[in-house]
Amino acid sequence: MNICVFCSAADLDDRYVKPARKFAELIGQGGHALVWGGSDTGLMKVMADGVQEAGGKLLGVSVEFLAHKARTNADEMVVTKDLAERKAQLLARADAVVVMVGGTGTLDEATEILELRKHGMHGKPVVLLNTAGFYDGLRSQFERMAAEGFLPIPLTELVFFAEDGAGALAYLEEQVSIEG
């Protein structure tokens, strides 16, 4: 399975790094490929290192203005002209999507992927990996959106909240086997 992971390129606290490393190892050990933003910095580097060291493949999609930060030893690296093309390429190469901790770029990626899913533009499973309760506030917001009629599909069909990488991967493997 090609698993697209959206996450931060920033250097983060161990409460985020250690669970990310474990998740990356699970992806690699499972024989899966990481589809990611291609950066060799921050949490993106942690994920790429962990997947690669555990035997998984790396499919990177960088963008021209960040190409100087791209990982040099990925199995494949594509450089796009802008962020919109990058997001489209990431989704096109993925069988499933996991949104990890991140800033505004990660939130932008998450909301676009969820909006496309909401409108039936893709049926790929989407997981918000809620490491250390990072997405508790967003989960509350989504629950309010669902309760007040802002979502045309049930929240459980839109996104799955996982508390750890093992739960995220188990959900994805189950969903992809059902759809496949």
Set out the fold topology.
Elements: E1 2-6, H1 14-29, E2 33-36, H2 42-53, E3 57-63, E4 76-80, H3 83-92, E5 96-99, H4 104-118, E6 126-129, H5 136-147, H6 155-158, E7 160-162, H7 165-179
Parallel strand pairs: 1-2, 1-5, 2-3, 3-4, 5-6, 6-7
Helix pairs in contact: 1-2
CATH topology: the name is Rossmann fold
What sequence of helices (H) and strands (E) makes up the elements? EHEHEEHEHEHHEH
Radius of gyration: 15 Å
| Number of E-state strands | 7
Helix percentage: 40-55%
Average pLDDT metric: 95
Sheet with the most strands, sense and barrel status: 7 strands, parallel
Low-confidence stretches: none
Our measurement of the CA-to-CA distance between the termini, rounded to an integer number of angstroms, reads 11 Å
Overall morphology: globular
Name the CATH architecture.
Answer: 3-Layer(aba) Sandwich
Question: What is the SS-derived class?
Answer: alpha/beta
Into which percentage range does the β-strand content fall?
15-25%
The structural domain count equals 1
